[in-house]
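check this:
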Amino acid sequence: MVETPQKNGHRVRDFIYLFVILIAIWLMLTSSFHWQELIVGASISLVLGLILAKRYSSLGLPPISIKRIIYSIIYILVLLKEIVVANFDVAYRVIHPKMPIKPGIVVIETDLKQNFAKLILANSITLTPGTFTLDIKDDKLLIHWINVQSESIQESTREIGKRFEKYLKVIFA
């Protein structure tokens, strides 16, 4: 199989981005700039970068870019914020004397086209306490919600999915 220059160019770019990301992770984990640790970190990052760049391009995911990396970081921060807010919301419902809950199952729609992006969305929804993704069917997700505010697909989508989806659209475009 002959690779096109564009595909090969993506692999080189993916390798460079992965190598830089892996070195950054290595430096954060070791918190050291000793030359021995830098050599070990660079060696491990080089090997992993070569292996992962080939695997990454075989997954059919969009090529890595600075814009996608920035949106991924923003997405992780938004996800962490939503997890904290949802934890406080669920804790309030648990300690409230009358336990104000209205559990139910709602359907939300997604504009995401890639299955992997839908999986990330479903897992993000499940990670936020008070919601749980039950199933994904085409462009719809079946969600158990601890406090159903609306049974309308559009309202449920806006309340549950859109906060994550706007970032995932850019990451997986």
Summary: The helical segments are 5-30, 35-58, 66-95, 115-127, 153-171. DSSP finds five helices and three strands in the chain. The longest strand covers residues 131-137.
